[in-house]
């Protein structure tokens, strides 16, 4: 198992370096063909490495796969050296300027790039052969690869001969021999220490990757790079801020509200940078959280607390409690509860004299069920040494959370606005227009500063509007007509969009619609493929793909390409988003007149994409022990190949039901029913989801139309299928609904006489109650328990585990409390004692 963890650690490191290099390559301007080829090859390699990692992590101690995987250690070491050398040549300069200082020229010759590509291709071939478990082929391939790659063998041979001569000489001189032995001992000790350090570093990277995908350190660095001049100095020198820093105020929390566009996020990054620059006599920790309206689904309180632990580990290394947390939950493939995370985080922060936590954009954190209040209360409860800094819009409900805390309003000073404008005027179209015209330069500074009213965003929109001027006269007229509020600025910007040609205008609005209504941020490639789909077709025409540069150029500065605040799993790590969350709000406020029926367009696009006839559909599942199925025919390999080849497939399979729910399912009922009626379409929609990769030699059977409709939360479609004769006794829709937590569908099914609330899955013996408990769906579980026919409270599955056991084992503390208060609940677990001992504290906590 230690070997397995070592292999997994190596792979995680290699994948992360690969993604980093791909990100760096985006700034390389020369040799575009070689750059793109290398980027794609690295991305493909990362996908195959993750395949090896998955097989290794799921293997038992006696699994023959581990023997095969161990043979890849040598190639992985070569790859590690190759990638680190490549990363070193491409990484940003060390002065902290990030992208601004990144190397912009491709410094390798085409020949050297081809050499790198050949080495990567050889190692990728070894990985593929290994996953196929062809031991003989793997041995031959490794031997051949070593013969090609290791160009230093002759040098090693020469060194060996030199060592032999040295040994002969030492034999004639015992004193010198003794000295060399001492030196060798020192070198061995150094190597041993280096190996231990490498192992510690790999363990550190494993834990960091496991804690969370959120990457607030990169967000902070990115936002700080946008700072213009010395902006924000007034804030750092304010009395309220200085007293908050030194702790001389009654409250340790500083709330800083501000209007949209005043630069709250950049100011938060400035505050973090300032705090990190101070010299502290006592042990101090600085942590950051950047909330984002586009990442509501991933930015839960539990995930934010994991990000705080991640930053702590990044700055101060691993501790025994965090290592124990990782060891316990990683092997079980479960996540710690918020109670456990709070306890661990509180214990870790106790060792610091003072902990500064900067929380930006609280108003962009979900307030469902009082989420904002819960987040603030839980952060404040972490310890008396917590100094909390919060920014948000000036919203009454948020203000009530800080009535007893210090308040410092954010409003960009005129000097800051001028510095920002001056930076924008130093380059681009306006720079040429005002060159040598100090009067125009000053007029723009004065006019935009006045109209911006302390908002950086509004100033930026004004500059974008002025940049369309072609003469000085037109520029002065545009300057007089600048809007003095955000809505007016957006209206003016849309006038620019509307003035384009018909094709560009229509494409721009489609881009706006996709960004506004997508279930999650779209990558650049996903958006390009989505825009290329033609409804009613069976294939995607590659000639219909728009160029990446077009996405920004026709949108009048309202759309930008950015890095996500999480580690993206696939090779296209750039996402497309609006320039500001107020842009999203503006478009949503005009949904009816700008985007009528756009949700149905997205749903139909997803359905059309999943009907394309060039997907590889798996016939059987992956065998767990024998691995007799070829990797290239396995569901996992097909999934990876399909995601790599069909860039919009992952989104379509994951979110078509999200877009088709609500009223949309009524308007496109016929298309949904037609889609569900084809087994191949259902198989595409279901088997290409990562969490449904099964580990058994059984054939891949697509879900029934009813099962898929239930799983996607399509209440109306579920009713239609039931009315048309779908049999709930055969298809077990209640189990599916309880698993995913669709409460309305659960209530619909419970109201029917032909649905048995106690019916278990014939393969696993899981009941609807077990699925609800296992997945933490409290309201669904309450509805099931309230059913008058409910009598399977203490039923057990094929392993002898009850619903209560599953809830405890999965750390569903709220569900556990509900079950423990249910009459007649059985709290003994005779068949699960060994596993239950590891969860005793959860029972006690419940």
Automatic annotation (TrEMBL):
Swiss-Prot/TrEMBL keywords: Repeat
Transmembrane portions of the chain: none
One Pfam family of this chain: NPHP3_N
Residue ranges of domain GPI inositol-deacylase winged helix in the record: 499-590
Ranges for domain Nephrocystin 3-like N-terminal: 230-393
PANTHER family: AMELOGENIN, NACHT DOMAIN-CONTAINING PROTEIN
Protein name according to UniProt: NACHT domain-containing protein
Species the sequence originates in: Armillaria tabescens
Species classification: Eukaryota, Fungi, Dikarya, Basidiomycota, Agaricomycotina
């Amino acid at each position: 198992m230690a070997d397995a963890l070592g292999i997994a650690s190596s792979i995680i490191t290699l994948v992360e370096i690969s993604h980093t290099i791909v990100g760096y390559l985006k700034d390389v301007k020369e040799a575009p063909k070689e750059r793109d080829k290398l980027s794609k090859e690295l991305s493909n390699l990362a996908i195959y490495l993750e395949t090896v990692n998955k097989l290794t992590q799921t293997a038992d101690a006696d699994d023959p796969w581990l023997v095969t995987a161990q043979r890849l250690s040598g190639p992985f070491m070569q790859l590690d050296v190759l990638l680190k050398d490549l990363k070193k040549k491409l990484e940003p300069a060390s002065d902290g300027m990030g992208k601004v200082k990144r190397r912009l020229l491709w410094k390798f010759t085409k020949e050297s790039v081809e050499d790198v590509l050949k080495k990567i291709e050889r190692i990728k071939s070894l990985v593929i052969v290994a996953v196929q478990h062809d031991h003989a082929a793997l041995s031959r391939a490794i031997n051949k690869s070593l013969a090609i790659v290791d160009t230093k063998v002759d040098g090693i041979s020469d060194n060996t001969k030199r060592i032999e001569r040295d040994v002969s000489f030492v034999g004639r001189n015992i004193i010198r021999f003794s000295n060399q032995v001492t030196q060798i001992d020192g070198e061995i000790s150094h190597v041993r220490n280096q190996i231990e350090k490498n192992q510690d570093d790999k363990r550190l990277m494993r834990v960091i990757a496991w804690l969370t995908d959120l990457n607030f350190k990169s967000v902070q660095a990115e936002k700080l790079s946008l700072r213009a001049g010395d902006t924000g100095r007034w804030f750092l020198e304010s009395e309220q801020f200085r007293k908050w820093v030194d702790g001389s105020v009654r409250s340790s929390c500083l709330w800083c509200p501000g209007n949209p566009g005043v630069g709250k996020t950049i100011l938060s990054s400035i505050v973090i940078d300032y705090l990190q620059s101070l010299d502290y006599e006592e042990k101090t920790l600085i942590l950051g959280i950047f909330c984002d309206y586009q990442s509501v689904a991933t930015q839960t309180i539990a995930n934010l607390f994991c990000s705080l632990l991640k930053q702590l580990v990044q700055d101060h290394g691993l501790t025994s409690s965090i290592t124990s947390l990782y060891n316990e939950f990683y092997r079980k493939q479960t996540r710690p509860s918020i109670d456990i995370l709070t306890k661990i985080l509180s214990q870790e922060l106790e060792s610091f004299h003072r902990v500064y936590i900067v929380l930006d954009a609280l108003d962009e954190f979900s307030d469902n069920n009082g989420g904002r209040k819960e987040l603030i209360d839980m952060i404040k409860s972490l310890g008396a040494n917590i100094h909390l800094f919060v920014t948000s819009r000036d919203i009454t409900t948020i203000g009530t959370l800080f009535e007893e805390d210090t308040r410092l309003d954010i409003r960009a000073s005129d000097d800051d606005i001028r510095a920002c404008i001056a930076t924008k005027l130093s380059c681009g179209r306006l720079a040429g227009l005002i060159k040598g015209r100090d009067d125009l330069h000053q007029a723009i500074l004065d006019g935009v500063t006045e109209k911006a009213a302390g908002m950086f965003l509004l100033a930026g929109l004004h500059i974008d509007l002025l940049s369309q001027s072609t003469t000085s006269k037109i520029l002065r007229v545009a300057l007089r007509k600048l809007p003095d509020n955000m809505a007016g600025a957006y209206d003016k910007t849309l006038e620019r969009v509307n003035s384009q040609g018909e094709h560009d205008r229509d494409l721009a609005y489609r881009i706006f619609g996709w960004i506004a209504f997508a279930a999650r941020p779209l990558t650049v490639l996903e958006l390009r493929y989505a825009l290329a789909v033609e409804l009613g077709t069976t294939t995607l025409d590659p000639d219909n793909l728009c160029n990446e540069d077009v996405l920004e150029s026709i949108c009048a500065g309202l759309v930008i390409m950015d890095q996500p605040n999480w580690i993206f799993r696939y090779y296209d790590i750039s996402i497309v988003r609006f320039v500001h969350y107020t842009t999203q709000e503006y478009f949503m406020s005009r949904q009816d007149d700008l985007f009528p029926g756009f949700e149905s367009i997205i749903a139909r696009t997803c359905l059309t994409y999943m009907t394309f006839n060039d997907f590889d559909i798996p016939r059987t599942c992956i065998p767990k022990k024998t691995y007799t199925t070829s990797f290239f025919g396995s569901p996992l390999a097909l999934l990876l190949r399909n995601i790599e080849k069909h860039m919009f497939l992952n989104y379509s399979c994951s979110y078509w039901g999200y877009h088709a729910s609500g009223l949309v399912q009524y308007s496109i009922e016929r298309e949904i029913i037609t889609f569900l009626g084809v087994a191949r379409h259902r198989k595409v929609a279901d088997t290409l989801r990562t969490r449904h990769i099964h580990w058994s030699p059984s054939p891949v059977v697509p879900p029934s139309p009813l099962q898929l409709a239930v799983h996607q939360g399509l209440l109306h479609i579920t009713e239609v299928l039931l009315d048309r004769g779908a049999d709930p006794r055969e298809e077990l829709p209640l189990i599916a609904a309880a698993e995913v937590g669709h409460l309305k569908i659960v209530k619909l099914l419970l109201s029917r006489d032909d649905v048995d609330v106690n019916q278990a899955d014939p393969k696993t013996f899981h009941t609807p109650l077990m699925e609800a408990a296992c997945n933490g769906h409290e309201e669904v579980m309450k509805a099931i328990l309230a059913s008058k026919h409910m009598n399977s409270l203490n039923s057990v599955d094929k392993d002898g585990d009850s619903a209560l056991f599953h809830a405890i084992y999965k750390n569903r503390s709220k569900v556990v409390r509900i079950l423990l208060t249910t009459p007649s609940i059985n709290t003994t677990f005779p068949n699960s004692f060994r596993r239950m001992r590891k969860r005793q504290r959860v029972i006690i906590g419940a």
